[in-house]
């Protein structure tokens, strides 16, 4: 067997084993590490930070919110300090920070910061967030209506071995390449065995 | 190495590769590196607060190194003890001596297979995994990532150098392998003890001594000083680099002694 065939073949089998490891990583289900539930009211035409924190590809959260009226729910990939800094930069004097108009203007100016958004028109909203990179995520509720809305939420932290989707995509690319590289060696092995068998038959 | 010497060198290298990485050794280790890298990666330091930057890069890279580094150590120890030791014990090395190749090139080919290929596989899997897990850390802080790897690999390479010498002197691999594993764990214990002694004596001297053989210690203290000002030891970046340089000088000296012994004193 030619050396380059062996070299390619071994490279292929190594890629196959790395792909298998990645596939295994992607198949390990996320684990719930703890949950927290709370509730409150949000005044008319205001916004509120529900929680914020650094999320990683190994740690995300699952949240469900129920409200007695329509609330806009946002997941922003910025800290709440970024929002307040933006408001203070654009509006001077004594202002009501929690006014939803300022918040909506911030969103209009920074649409790239919105990772996800939905409203509670149907009464309940559920979302699972696992970032693909280390992200400062802030969960915000905004009440643009003219009446106070009461809400309840339950949040659970979910832990993963790694970013399952990325790992699966990588495995899907790596494994066929590995198989392709191994193919010449497999064909060579098959041919050699066939030749050996036929020569054994002839000598018998 | 010029002209006709390339082919014999490649012959020895190919033979060493064949011996060190028989199917499916390389595949099993690649699988373990990849799986271990993901399973042991930890972003704990970042979830506790909005800590980003150099420390985050150091912290994530260090967390990735835990078990996969141990797997890497097992592979290089096996390759040196059983690969080179086995060749000396069985007399295969004498066949290589008959090649039109200087002894130093024979040892280079053996070490390139035993250490170089393992290191290449280990680093390529680890850095690729880092790109998958934390691309926003690796790209801007690649220098920190490389520095962390350099500091963490110094200690295993030091023991590999000691193992090489022991294998050459004893001309047997089994004992060198046992000694290597014992040394690896003994020095891990010494690391922990050094920390206690340093705190008890309120002096960083012991940590400084340990940093010469394991520069990861000084690097850890350097990055720790980002948050805990006025701690026991606050080394500067230049100091950390100096310890790293000293560590690799010790490693290079050991391998140099190994080369000299193999070329001049190994009477086979």
Determine the N-to-C terminus distance of chain B: 23 Å
Q: Count of helical segments of chain A? A: 4
How would you classify the helix and strand content of chain B by structural class? mainly alpha
Annotated CATH homologous superfamily of the largest domain in chain A = GOLD domain
**How many extended strands of chain B?**
0
β-strand amount of chain B: under 5%
Mean pLDDT of chain B: 89
- Report the major sheet of chain A: 4 strands, antiparallel
Q: What's the helix count of chain B?
A: 12
From N to C, what is the helix and strand string of chain B?
Answer: HHHHHHHHHHHH
Structure, described:
The complex is a heterodimer of chains A (204) and B (268). Chain A has 204 residues and is an alpha+beta fold. Chain A contains four helices and eight strands. Chain A is elongated and about 100 Å long. Chain A folds into two domains: 3-26 and 165-203; 29-160, GOLD domain (Jelly Rolls), CATH 2.60.120.680. In chain A, strands 1-8-3-6 form a four-stranded antiparallel sheet, with no helix packed on it. A four-stranded antiparallel sheet of chain A has the order 2-7-4-5, with helices on one face. In chain A, helix 1 (3-27) packs across helix 4 (164-203). Chain B is mostly helical. Chain B has one domain (3-265). Chain B contains twelve helices and no strands. Chain B is globular, with a radius of gyration of 20 Å. In chain B, 43% of the residues are buried. Chain A binds chain B through residues 3, 10, 13-14, 16-18, 20-22, 24-25, 53-59, 79, 133-134, 136, 161-163, 166-167, 170, and chain B through 14, 21, 23-24, 26-28, 30-35, 38-39, 41-43, 46-47, 49-52, 56, 121, 125, 132-137.
